[in-house]
């Protein structure tokens, strides 16, 4: 009897063994999908990992029901990467499988190839004489005759009738025929009913072919860029990973394009990772102009069917040479990967949060490249502290690009003390007089403005003026955000929606006021203060629909809008020619966040947003509003002094034992009953302390201690460098199992976040 070990898309550890019916033995092999029973009524689609003759002891083995593939949908390298993700991030491999495969490959009938109706001549008409007779018969049916004549020309049968070869006959779609002949569907159906043509369905790809590459459209590198390009090539000869640290608008993308061309010319594939879907819009056009149909795009805004087709194409004999995508693109199959580019490598968006596996795409890309024998280039103007530390200590190569393309000056920063202005009652809502004046000048002069406020909605909360009551989510320990355009209160943690109260339920007061500023409220104020401005807002609320990113970015790039208000997504590598003023409305909300990475994230965000100013033409202006103008971080942002920032923060990290000097693992416990999760966390914390000692911190309540009606506790594990991480992970799994085996805590959810962001 033959047995197969199979990955199933379930959150359980290990592989599952099934017996292989004799009739299926030839088709069951590594990487193919099979349908198998699971439980009493469920059928899952699994992936075969190995076949063997060892019958499992003590369990009843069930048969595979169906083989779904002739060829594998998984490569050996992918499976090794899945194993690494499952082990390192402590997630069942079934959850890795769920995250990696498009939905259409995880169900028996989940993917339907796209088909189109095509037209062909009936066999009995495929001669010159028969065609002349047919045209005579249709002499009084003008539309049908015109449609048939158009078909003969489009397909090549007209040339055959004149003595040409049938080898040149091509397929014609029904839509193509209708467009060419201006015939309606009735005329086509009449031709089919009368026996002149027949229609058939044919599978067609959803993927944009993009045309032939045009390398003449590659821009010539400037002197500084050329030096950086050469330095990157030299560094990658010695190091597997190199950091390209280039200031904003230094031309890193053009360097990437030249590196991609060099890799393709060497017969290798390239993976180009971006942190946000928004970024793919602009960069996709730049890459497509050069690489044409050799470029494939892969991200969550694409339909599942499109993602299935890209997955299958990557396994075909003619895969895309370049894949441009967001985080999940690192999980695609590659057969000859040579280069991985991780652009904006500092971005937190590369870290998957929920659901599991909570992997970091940058780290995963480095491991993938190592397995595939490829090289990795990390690019950014504001490196992640750990990445820069690895480059400074020689683990990674380092190439620095300190000047903007074509010598354009870095933007001028002006710091505004809004605490003083508020005291003197000189602020106009969220705008200082300086910012408002520069915005007005820019709009009147035909230039553009970007305003950064990292809070969406109209206001972060509403409050009763009389008693101070603030509405809170029933399911989460957070206040509700007012979205005035939808006239509702929303929880940004669980998505629950509430009506806006007319009176205070605590005291009956009728004065409920909005406190603080979200992007929606900023938009309203700009429209009031600058009625001549064409204003757009770019945040999660305005980019939910398909094509929303493209429309917003396209309108701003084309000058159809001249003030763009947004959250952090506006600072992520977007390139606009006419932006002369950038306003950072409140730097303090970023700096005062309760997290050891707060200053790092604040520096990155302000430097990146500021870098959108003055990318073409005259020098840009960044107006940075803060209540702490003398804070060292503000001075470092203004000077663009990343090295001084690094020296300060790395010293703090070393003194207090944070990455890159330790490995962090967060352990989360969740349950509906606060007392149950509290006792479970105390017991698990005590168990971990017996093994890890003072490396265990907590348990504590996180800043938001209840989400979606689940009460949360958090334990922090700090592991010094050089410790046996594999052994530590084994102990953590043991602690989770031991805690869940306790009858009191069997319903407590316990999961790990390795290298949290």
Describe this structure in words.
This protein is α/β, with parallel strands linked by helices. 34% of the residues lie in helices and 22% in strands. The chain has 23 helices and 31 strands. Strands 11-12-10-13-14-9-15 form a 7-stranded parallel sheet, with helices on both faces. Strands 16-26-25-17-24-23 form a 6-stranded parallel sheet, sandwiched between helices. Helix 1 packs across helix 12. The longest helix is centred in the last third of the chain and has 19 residues, at 674-692.
List keywords for this structure.
single chain; 757 residues; alpha/beta; 7-stranded parallel beta sheet; 23 helices; 31 strands
Provide the helix percentage: 25-40%
What kind of sheet is the major sheet?
A: 7 strands, parallel
Overall shape: it is globular
| Number of separate helices | 23
Mean pLDDT: 91
Separation, N- and C-terminal Cα atoms: 48 Å
Poorly predicted sequence stretches spanning 5 or more consecutive residues: none
Total E-strand runs: 31
Instruction: List the strand order in the largest sheet.
Output: 11-12-10-13-14-9-15
CA radius of gyration: 30 Å
Estimate what percentage of residues fall within beta strands.
Answer: 15-25%
- Structural class category: alpha/beta
Provide a brief overview of the structure.
With 757 residues, the chain is α/β, with parallel strands linked by helices. Helices cover 34% and strands 22% of the residues. The longest helix is centred in the C-terminal third of the chain and has 19 residues, at 674-692.
